[in-house]
Amino acid sequence: MAVTSFNIDDKMDQTLESLKAHYGATSKAEILRKAVALLSVASKNEAEDGTILLSDGKGKDIRVIVK
Question: N or C: more exposed end of the chain, with fewer CB within 10 A?
Fold first, then answer.
């Protein structure tokens, strides 16, 4: 497995910690892997204008710009 290292600011660290707690992850690396997997799915399903459509399952759709 390749090892990558990078610096993040305090706000990003807090976000990663919050997501780690929310998802019961064991590490911030696990959260980053999930984020990359989600972005990969989004990139394969985005519209020509760079947006994806999310549904809350209750009839409300939200268009999100990913590009």
Answer: N
10-23 vs 28-45: helix crossing angle, rounded to 10: 90
| Contact between residue 42 and residue 58 where contact means Cβ atoms under 8 Å apart | no
Convert 8-28 into a string of H (helix), E (strand) and C (coil).
CCHHHHHHHHHHHHHHCCCCH
pLDDT digits (tens, 9 = 90+) for 41-54: 999 999 999 999 99
Rounded to the nearest 5°, which phi and psi values hold at 25? Answer: -75, 155
pLDDT digits (tens, 9 = 90+) for 11-40: 999 999 999 999 999 999 999 999 999 999
Distance CA 26, CA 40 (A): 22
Q: Which two tokens stand for residue 63?
A: 């268009």
